[in-house]
Amino acid sequence: MKLVTVVGARPQFIKAAALSRAMLARRGSGLSEVLVHTGQHYDENMSNVFFEELGIGAPAYNLGIAGGTHGAMTGKMIEALERVLLVERPDWVLIYGDTNSTLAAALAAIKLHMPIAHVESGLRSYNMRMPEEVNRIVADRLSSLLLCPTEAAVANLAKEGLSNGVHLVGDVMYDVALYFAQVAEQRTSILAQLGVTPKAYVLATCHRAENTDDPENLAGVVRGLAGLAASRPVVFPIHPRTRAKIQEYGLLGALGSVTVIEPLSYLDMVALERHAAVIVTDSGGVQKEAFFYRVPCVTARKETEWVETVSAGWNTLVGSDSARMIEAVNRHAQLERLEANPYGAGDAAERILNIMLRLAPACDR
Fold first, then answer.
1. Omega into 361 within 30° of 0, i.e. cis?
2. Which of 33, 54, 224, 292 sees the fewest Cβ atoms within 10 Å?
3. Which of the four pLDDT bands, split at 50, 70 and 90, describes residue 40?
4. Distance CA 204, CA 320 (A)
5. Closest Cα to residue 122, out of 150, 80, 83?
6. Distance between CA atoms of 314 and 337, rounded to whole angstroms?
7. How much is the pTM?
8. In whole angstroms, how far apart are CA 33 and each of 19, 23, 86, 186, 196?
9. Residues that are catalytic
10. Vertex 269 angle, CA 266 and 272, to 5°
């Protein structure tokens, strides 16, 4: 069975690592993977170093497509991916999550009548202003296999009339979190490099368009982080787009004593997540990783696809309201939290491979 795996953004590299490692363990069983990197994340620390640390190996194709508007980027990706798929002729096109790379791969594959398997299917924020929401809905509609991380994702698809090809497999990010937690402890010294003490700092990330592309929202996030930094260390690995927008809006000085650093490697980020007192983020992946590592999370969004993290008490939604952000971080110790784990048993990759092997070549829904 031959897979073409399409990735383009940092969280997708992490998810793909779980499947790639599971396939490597079955070497000699007729499985092969062709990894395609669209180039959507082009910064060295956002891309190449991830492949090395996660043991994925260099992509067979790097399309080098980054920047521009959503339409321009997606269009270029479709054109380039179509050429790759015509050469490789895979049994499955494997896509992850909700990025422009996900959308482009789904559209390129369906036009060529190639079966699509969508990992992280069924997630919904019900906010159609989010590009990611549009991408994931279209990807689900086009996919033959809808590989869901949670029961809530299965229920979301059922509400939309999608039941054929739906499988509850668990979350591949949980697979990765379990595997790499101890690896990070042995291979990184990032806390010492930054001079921070375990459980005595806040870790922050921000990259969603709803925050970065709205001056008022981004100002609220910046003010919130600066307010937190007045009483404790706040470490802020900054996304290249976020840095550019902060400079464009004249907000650089408003960050106060926040420790702004370049994007981190995966293992450095895992170490900082595991030892943070609280995480402030607008990233879906970081919300989940906080939950996996049992670190309280404050999310700078009004909604989340990962509703289980909120219902279990580990995640609080505050939007871009700086006062609510500070208040939520300050009261995290008083929150009642459950020890439930709705994301599976850490064997999602094996489950996905077994399904794909059983059903290849896939039939149209």
1. yes
2. 33
3. confident
4. 13
5. 150
6. 6
7. 0.87
8. 10, 8, 15, 29, 40
9. 207
10. 155
Is there a contact between 329 and 297 (Cβ–Cβ < 8 Å)?
no
Mean pLDDT estimate for the chain: 92
- Nearest-angstrom CA–CA distance, 15 and 155: 22
Question: How many Å apart are CA 2 and CA 166, to the nearest integer?
Answer: 21
Nearest by Cα to 293 from 277, 310, 305, 280: 277
340 in Cβ contact with 151 (< 8 Å): no
189 to 35, 54, 253, 267: CA distances (angstroms):
30, 17, 29, 10
Query: Which residue ranges form the domains of the chain, and what is each CATH number?
Result: 2-171+345-359 (3.40.50.2000), 178-334 (3.40.50.2000)
Closest CA to 240 of 1, 43, 5: 43
Q: How many whole angstroms separate alpha carbon 52 and alpha carbon 151? A: 33
Half-sphere exposure of 260 toward its Cβ, with a 13 Å CA cutoff? 17
- Spatial distance between the Cα atoms of 208 and 218, rounded to a whole number of angstroms: 10
Pairwise CA distance, residues 280 & 326, whole Å:
10
CB atoms near residue 339 (< 10 Å) = 8
CB 242 within 8 A of CB 206: yes
- Tokens for 295, please give them: 């670190």
pLDDT in tens, 87-127: 999 999 999 999 999 999 999 999 999 999 999 999 999 99
Which tokens go with 220? Answer: 């609220």
Are 62 and 50 contacting, i.e. CB atoms less than 8 angstroms apart? no
DSSP for 294-349?
A: T--EEESSS--S-HHHHHTTSEEE-TT-HHHHHHHHHTGGG-------TT-SS-HH
Strand partners, 62: 37
Output the CA–CA distances (angstroms, integers) from residue 79 to 60, 86, 127, 233, 239, in the order listed. 17, 11, 28, 46, 27
Name the percent of the chain lying above pLDDT 90.
Answer: 79
